[in-house]
Structures are given as C-alpha cells and as structure tokens.
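Render this sequence as a predicted structure.
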Amino acid sequence: MKVAEFGIENFRSIYSLPNLHAQKLNVFIGKNNAGKSAILDALFIALKNISYLSPAISSPILSEPADTCPEQLSKLWFFGGHEKPAIIRIKLELNREEKSELSESSALEDIKYVELEVHITYEENNIEWKLQKLNLVGYSFPSIIQKTNKVYKSITKQDLQEYNIEKIVEDAHVLNNEAFSKFLEISKDKIFRLIPYTYIEEGNTRIKGLLRFLSLPTDMIDCLRRLNDAETELKSKFYNFLQEITPYHTYYIEGRDLLKQWEFITLRTECFGSGEQLIEGLLATLIILSREHQGCIVMIEEPEVHLHPEYVRRLARILRKFLKENDMQLFIVTQSPDFLKEIDWESVFVVRLKKKEVPSLGPKFTTTVDKLGKDKFVAEGLALDLGISVGELAFIDVLILVEGKADEDILRRCIQILSEQGKLQNLNFYSTEFYKIAQLNKDSAIKLATEFLRNQVFVVADGDEEGKRIIETAKKYNLKINENVFQWSAKDILYLFDSNVLSKAIEKVLDKYKSRIKEDNAVDNISELLKGIRNGSTLARDRDPLRDLATIIFQNVEEIKNKYRNGKEREFYYMLKAEIARALVDELSQVPLEIEKVILLIDAVLTRKRERREM
C-alpha cells in the first residue's frame, strides 16, 4: 500500500492543498512553522485511525471529547474554523497481493486504486473523525477487454473505457460490509511515525549528569532490542547498512540488554553518542517494519538530528537504497541541505507559508507546497551554475546576480556590517545566494534565475559596457531598474571604496607577485598604476587599471602565464580581483555610501514583499 495522491483542506495551517502526487520517497523541506509537520499530521490522522475501526460498525466514526485538550484541538481547523470540516483526501495504490484480497469481496475484477476521504468535524462538544468516503476504482469487465484497453491507451494515451467506481462507504455509512471489512484488514498497522529524538532524563542520582540515558523514543528502542535478538539474516542486513554509514561501528552482544563490546570493554548503548544511537535505532526500526508490515508507510521527522554532515549524506543514500530493496513508502521532513544533496529532485516538496485571500476570512497565512523540480531543466541548470545540488535550491530565498567572486565577497561583508549596525529589516533574515554570471551566457543565466525564483531576483552590475549589457538583458525579463536591477556608477565595485583603502588592499595582494617580476619596466608600470589609483587619476580614464595590472602580472610572471595559458588571461583578472576583494573585506568596517544605498534598496523591496506576504 502506498499514497499515490493526497489533498488537504481546512487543517491547521492549511487552507487548501490540491492533489499532490506522492512517490516512494517524499521529502518535505521549508522554514519552521511553514506547515511540514501539519502535512504529515493530516496523512497520519487519516490513515492511522482506520486501524481503530471495527468491521462490525455501520458508521466509521471515532469520537474524542473536545475538552481533552481544548487549546490544541480548537486549532485543528484553519484559523479555528470548525464550522466546516477538515478534509483529507487520499488515493491509495495497492500491491498485487492487497488487490487480490480486496477483489474477492468486490464487484470489480481489477482494482486500480482506492479513494478515501476523511472529515474531522466538531459535533456537540465532540471532535469526530469520519471516514466520509471509501471507493474502489478499477475495471469490472473481463480481462481480455482490459488488455485491449491497455493497448489502446499505449497508442492514444487515453482509456478505451472509463474506470468503474464501487462505493464502499458513502457519507460515513458502510454500503458493502464485506469489502469494508477486507479493506480494514489489509490497511491495519500500515502507517508509522518516527520522531528520532526524545527527552533526556536527569536520573535519580544526587549529582546530576552522572548517568547517560538512551536518546531514542521507546518504539525505536524496542525495535533495536528485537533486531538484536533476531535471526542472523536480519542482523546481517542491519550491519551491512550500518557499515555504509559508520565504517567503525561497534557490534551488539546478543540479547535484549543492548550491550556493546568496545576495546575489550562491555558498555551499554547509552554510553555511545546520540548520533550512533539514532542511526542504529532508525535502521533497526525500518528493518523490523519492513519485515512485519510489508507495504507500510513510514513518516520520519528530521532524521539528521545529532548527525555529522557526512553521516547525513550517507544516511540519505542508505534510505534510497533501502526503498529499492523493500516494499515501503517514506515521508520525511528535513532541514538539512546535506540530506537533500543525495535526494532526487523529483522527490522534494518545498513547503512555504504565504498570505492568500481566503473567502470570508480575508488575507491569511496558509501553507503552500511546490515540487522543487517542476521544471527539470530550470532546476538542474541553475543548480549546476551555482555549484550546488538541486535539492539545495529549496533553501534559497533571495538570489543576487553579480559579475564575479569579488562582488559576492564585498556584498556579503557589507550586508553583515549593515546588519550589525541594525540598518536591515529583512535581507539578513533570508537565505541569500549569489549567482556569479561574468563567465556565463548572461541571457541564459538571468532567464534561469527569474524562472526559478521569479520576483526574488536582484541584479547588481558594474558601470562599464559589460554592466550596461547585463542591465539591458535583465530588463527583458521584467526586472525593474532601482527595484530589482542596480548599476554602480564606477566601472567596478572595488572603485567605490576610498582610493587609499583600495590601494593598500592591492599592495597587500601584490606582495606575492613583485618578487617574481624581473622586468624593471613592469615594476615601474605597476607603481604608476598604484599611484594613479591613490590620487584617482587612473579611475577617471576609460581604461580599467585593475585589468591593466592583471595584464602586467600575467605577462611577467611565468607561473601565472603557465597556469592561465591558452587565452585565459581573463580568468586571472577575475581571480586577482577576488584576492583584492578578500584583502579589502578583511579590514572593512564601514560600508561605502553607494553600496549601502543599493543594499538598503534591496532590503526595502524585500520588506514590501514581506508586508504584502509575497515571500
């Protein structure tokens, strides 16, 4: 059994999430309180409670007194609107065995999927869980016609005949007791939720902190004990997976006491690190569930807790491998870019909280969900240019397009200084990435950026001819001057700094090149350029003094010439500027006025967007 599609309405932070297509692995990422856990809650509530229904009942309804925990239960509905039910719609795909069992009590010969709809309502001081609808969807005609339909569909992409729907439950009333009973049987104990962290006790010792305790929930501890007491084949599977995450793991001594042998000493599991406990508890639980509850659905909240980044990446790889070998579906909430590096972009859901117009309520925050890879080429192209994984794109709030590394280093440091001075309202709260486009196709780069992040893209260009071309390209994609697009008055961002400060940074970088320049004429030319930068005379000309400086070094330092051969002088120019920028920001404490003005304008745009809830 697995979730193929689901939709949620009027539940917690969710006003309406239309049908979302699920896969075997589903990973939800987003900021805190965006609604990730609410999505898992909805699926869990809808599916878990099916196990508590009796096959003998005519109305599949469960009831809970509203005063059980009124502060929480009153918030089950979107902004407390319990006048309407919270609705969870799920399409379930069954495996061959489950289909076969259910077909025995159905009029359908071939069941394609199961539709169910759960309502959560407020009724006379009670909260009621209702299985409002349960339909079997498939074919009722003979198998030969099914084969004909399959051939027809492969050619036309359409069905020869529409699916038949058999209603098992309608308006919370059972219509087919036999099929209902069989559905309860095959769906019993098929949904599990793992939260791999727990409250750490202080213990009863007079001196607190002397004793360590297992940092796992009781159900995971139980699975670890059961696996340690299981047959060799199961334990071998456990240690093989473990070997791929923690090569230097320790082995358990047989029995349910969870003892380990380490350096000829017997220690209890709680004496080892929380990360090791988490990995072992999680793997043991998944192995036990896959054996005892084939086709189950497992939800995991933040499996990266306690783990080193490299172990997080290995764990993600193991979970993917585990799913290939086992009949299981995973729904995972994560905050880890490292976890996403190992996940197929098609498995990632980006959860955001946005303000939308809600009928009868006006503008309200509500949870929205986007598939990260809804445009494969945009996502993959942008990730490749940024040098990150596609999954990591989901963590970017703001994208600033600049020409090179020097621009990025300077702007990052200036944003940090303005933030420390309390001058920024929003830019310092968002995850900002810089997209360096100097050596890329400008049109393609700006197109990729605007398609992926739409109105959260900013372009900052130099005041030279190349910068003007970048500005014109940005305008093609509806980016507005002095709102999304900015151009420095100087040829380069470095020239916006005080000439003495800039010349000192240049001299600091030049120290490692001067001794390797043998030509007196070249040394004199460098001294002349530095003099011109200090007094401002060089900057007033059309030529770029830093480009001239890069040319002199390139032509006179053999190591540089060899490293950047075959016409790669331009690469050296960008590298030299980046070195000068790093030397500059090391000593920087005051932001030049023009740079401050542009950063504050970007911050003001983000503030307006945040106030309008566009971000």
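Summary. Residues 519 and 567 are 22 Å apart (CA to CA). Residues 274-292 form the longest helix (19 residues).
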